[in-house]
Design goal:
Elements lengths: L1 E6 L4 H8 L5 E7 L5 H8 L4 E3 L8 H14 L4 E4 L8 H7 L3 E5 L11 H8 L3 E8 L9 E8 L6 H24 L3 E4 L2 E4 L5
Parallel strand pairs: 1-2, 1-4, 2-3, 4-5
Antiparallel strand pairs: 5-6, 6-7, 8-9
This protein binds 5-O-phosphono-beta-D-ribofuranosylamine (GRF).
């Protein structure tokens, strides 16, 4: 599968995906922030790295249209959001629906939105985690592909909890992309069916 990665920052999920030896070709990495470390990593691997600075395009619809055109130039089968920290317009999502994945640092549908680790600690929940899901117009509520849980420890801070969750992100995102590339993900009535065994 041809995969385009969208990111905004550090890019550790992108790095995990790139290193996982998946049956994919990463055909472009695009960031809305020109300084994103993820772009440097892409360049270090010889992958096409594209900066599309959203601050130069204040209109969200206009920026997303440019972004969608740039993505489509690379003819992706799959678009992967890997720490892409901007809400996407509904027109953009409609254009890529069914081939757009996101990773979210909570066990959805708990804690959609931002600051998930601090909110999990504030609630006193004992299990937290991360979710890979297809993106739909309903923010952080698309069909769930895979989740991983981690324990919350009494002395956790948002940072220590985030680090524990991030290790699992780096495991489940490549797994989800592998399933997609193998044609094993089927969306049926808003839910993902995995064809074959859970491997
Ligand atoms: C991850 O925690 C991801 O779940 C969230 O943003 C963070 C991105 O980290 N959406 P990285 O850029 O992949 O290191």
């Amino acid at each position: 599968s041809r995969v385009v990665v969208l990111l905004s920052g550090r890019g550790s999920n992108f790095q995990a995906i790139a290193e996982a030896q998946l049956p994919i070709e990463i055909v472009a990495v695009i960031s809305n922030r020109p300084q994103a470390a993820g772009l440097d990593y892409a360049r270090s691997r010889g992958l096409p790295a594209v900066a599309l600075d959203h601050t130069a395009h204040p209109d969200r619809e206009a920026f997303d249209a440019l972004l969608a055109d740039e993505i489509e130039r690379h003819r992706p089968d799959l678009v992967v959001l890997a720490g892409y920290m901007r809400i996407l317009s509904t027109a953009f999502i409609a254009r890529f629906e069914g081939r757009l994945l996101n990773i979210h640092p909570s066990l959805l549908p708990m804690f959609p939105g931002l600051k998930t680790h601090a909110r999990a600690l504030a609630e006193g929940i004992k299990i937290h985690g991360c979710t890979v899901h297809f993106v739909t117009a309903d923010l952080d509520h698309g069909p769930i592909v895979i989740q991983a849980a981690v324990p919350v420890r009494a002395d956790d801070t948002p940072d220590t909890l985030a680090a524990r969750v991030l290790q699992q992100e780096h495991r489940i995102y490549p797994q989800a992309i592998r399933w997609f590339a193998e044609g094993r993900l089927e969306i049926n009535q808003g839910h993902v069916n995995l064809k074959g065994d859970l491997t």
